[in-house]
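Same chain as my last thread, 119 residues:
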Amino acid sequence: MLRTSLTALTLALALSACKPAPQQTETVAAPLAASATAESGPWWQDAVFYQIWPRSFYDTTGDGHGDFNGMTAKLPYLQELGINAIWLTPMFEAPSYHGYDFTEFYQVERDYGSMAEFE
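reply #2:
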């Protein structure tokens, strides 16, 4: 009887240790976000930024204020310097000179040009 019990126990343990073979599934890697790669991390970590205050950057109209066309005209020069990212200070309609107290999110400062020139 003891021998039969030990045989049954051994067989039960052996069968419980058996696992079904893992099923083969095709793994598809998710595409990386446009802003990051596995090797370099987020794009901005290696970017060379240049901050532009539009009011004083480059005036193409002769009114004493920098403008969107002036920024566009200087893009090749900034690229030659190795700049690959631009940080614009406030450019929305505002009652002050500096523009940090803007009153309208959907209207660019008229001194800088039109929304069409910005786009």
